[in-house]
Amino acid sequence: QRVVFSGIKPTGRLTLGNHLGALRRFADVQYTGRCVFSVVDLHALTVDHRPARLRALTRETATLYLAAGLDPDACVLFRQSDVPLHAELSFLLECTAYVGELNRMIQYKEKGRGRPGTRVSLLTYPVLMAADILAYRASEVPVGDDQRQHLELARDLAVRFNRAYGTVFVVPEMAPAQVAARVMNLQDPRRKMSKDDPDDAPGTIRLLDPPDVVRRKVMRAVTDSGTRVRYDLEGSPGVGNLIEILGGCVGEPDLESLADRYTSYGSLKRDVADAVIALLEPLQQRYADLADDPGTVEAILRKGAERAAELAAPTITAAKQAIGLAA
Ligand code: ATP
Ligand code: MG
What we know:
Blueprint: E1 3-8, H1 16-29, E2 34-39, H2 51-67, E3 76-79, H3 85-94, H4 99-103, H5 106-111, H6 120-135, E4 140-142, H7 148-165, E5 173-175, H8 211-219, H9 237-250, H10 255-260, H11 265-291, H12 294-323
Parallel strand pairs: 1-2, 2-3, 4-5
Helix pairs in contact: 2-11, 2-12, 3-6, 3-12, 6-7, 8-11, 9-11
Adenosine-5'-triphosphate binds next to α1.
EC number: 6.1.1.2
Subunit structure: Homodimer.
Keywords: Aminoacyl-tRNA synthetase, ATP-binding, Cytoplasm, Ligase, Nucleotide-binding, Protein biosynthesis
């Protein structure tokens, strides 16, 4: 059976990168197998956070899942902290993982290694992520390209645990987006567009940005001093990123031929702005309706948590049994 798991951590307002790399693709797979999607709020505790903002972002992220078209009757949608089994399995996997391999994680190196005030949980965060995935015996994980190394770790831990104690886990495959798997910042196209960018960052498109804001950000995107529109991420990362975004929005995987249709940066940017605005419009409309009705969102999350716990329980029981706990 096809089992899909993915999550987004509520550390900031979701970006176009989150949508093209992950969220949008959740709705595409939801009728094709068992699909489990989580707002992974425990992960948000691994970096400096404020409780009230975390709660608000968790609600906003869950609402955006629904606004992006997730059907709570077809998939399981829940808040990670409502299902304590994640933390429990994470500990078993911490007893499978090595300090050395966590220390080598790129995101840890970039975000915390060697800095005072870095939380222990930032180091162990990829293990909790592995637990999220392995708990559901997910076969597939739709995530952006930046998660490649973490997914590799989840696979390694599954294999290592299975070899040591007997087969409990399914080894998951990463399912990257065909195009726009790594959307870059419009002002600094060598850097990933991230929801941790400052709220008013001009190079970061938020899913709830109104159309005029989207257009302004796209029109001011950094390109280069050349004039030819070509798809070359190395030589011309700003233009390449705009073409990736356009291809992602309109569903055109052949980015070279997409680039060939343009003779100026101005016309490319206009089409990118139009495509992003068109992609976000229905989502924003549904968001506005749902935001008026927080009770419904909360009820969906609670029901989802119950279902998630049911699905994960047999895996944890088997893992505890295998590793020498339980009777
Ligand atoms: P942070 O920078 O704090 O890690 P984030 O924007 O990467 O924030 P995550 O919660 O880590 O958010 O990621 C949610 C999902 O969105 C993941 O599948 C991730 O790979 C994907 N994603 C994040 N940023 C991008 C991006 N710029 N392009 C494509 N996919 C992305
Ligand atoms: Mg990330």
